[in-house]
Hints:
By secondary structure, the protein is α/β, with parallel strands linked by helices. The chain has two domains: 2-120 and 296-308, ATPase, nucleotide binding domain (Nucleotidyltransferase, domain 5); 125-293, ATPase, nucleotide binding domain (Nucleotidyltransferase, domain 5). The protein is 38% helix and 22% strand. The chain contains ten helices and twelve strands. It has helices at residues 39-54, 93-101, 110-121, 181-184, 186-198, 213-221, 225-249, 264-278, 281-284, 298-308, and strands at residues 2-9, 13-20, 25-32, 59-67, 70-72, 77-80, 105-109, 130-135, 139-145, 148-149, 253-257, 288-291. The protein has a five-stranded mixed beta sheet, sandwiched between helices. A five-stranded mixed beta sheet has the order 10-9-8-11-12, sandwiched between helices. Helix 3 (110-121) crosses helix 10, helix 5 (186-198) packs antiparallel against helix 7 (225-249) and helix 6 packs across helix 7. The longest helix has 25 residues, at 225-249. It is globular. Bound molecules: zinc ion (ZN). Zinc ion binds next to loops.
Amino acid sequence: MADIIAIDIGGTNIKYGIIDHEGHIKNKGIVPTEAYNGGQALMDKVQNIVKQEIDHTSHLLGIGVSSAGQIEPKTGSVRFATDNLPGWTGMPIKDILTKRFNVPVYVDNDVNCAALGEFWQGAAQHRDDIIMITLGTGIGGAIVKEGRIFYGADGAAGEFGHMMLYPDGIRCTCGLTGCYEQYASTNALIRMVTDRLNKGEASILDENVAISGKDIFEAEKHGDRLAMDVINDWITYISWGLSIIVHSLNPSTIIIGGGVSAQGKEFIDRIKKKTIQLVMPSFAEHLSIKPAELSNDAGIIGAAYGVMRGDI
Length: 312
Ligand SMILES: [Zn+2]
């Protein structure tokens, strides 16, 4: 049996595991990232995990790393990380791990790894031309073609969150205005609810308490008018963006990940129904839109697949 050590570095936790060449997780663990200790401490922590796990592997094929932030695909170094991971920008992850452990190393960002994970072992198995979109506090995206990430000229393809929906719309964290992310992320959902509560609309949701996406879905289930209206609007926004993606990339499958995938197939079917209405029939015929299946394991499984696939 050949194994891969896979590590998924997030702002809060590091998930890791040993994954065999068939994609089965043999064992896994989780430790706090403690990002406040800085980039070097984080890199030391990653190396310690590899060192600790190496004893549990039979034949080590390589190391796969999924990381938050923007990863330079060719060099496997961090192009940019936000303040969630201070000191992480510029970290040559692949270089350091290759030199120290002398095995192939695959490094990619978290959304690309999640997409590869779903392609290998999850919702997109046996499918090609796949899109993954994560709807969370922001919007992430990835494009998979023949088991490979499509990177584009600068390694940044799939940045769907910043497609423009409104030329003079809401200002985005990226500096542009009217970005998809400002209308279709869970942050946007919460903002739309709070705006209407602040205008005095009646709802079982309380404007004086921090509201989560989950609260809004709960309120909808209880027949709350405001929650129902806003979720309907939100589904429309999500579908607008998906229709642009469908017409430009003609995917076979769109996997929806992020917090919203917890709402399950029923909710994703509502998005699918709306999206189908917005695309030309020839694009809609074989289009599948599904929730992600691998949840928290998608990152490690996808990072392992990057190693398995070879050519790194
Ligand atoms: Zn933007």
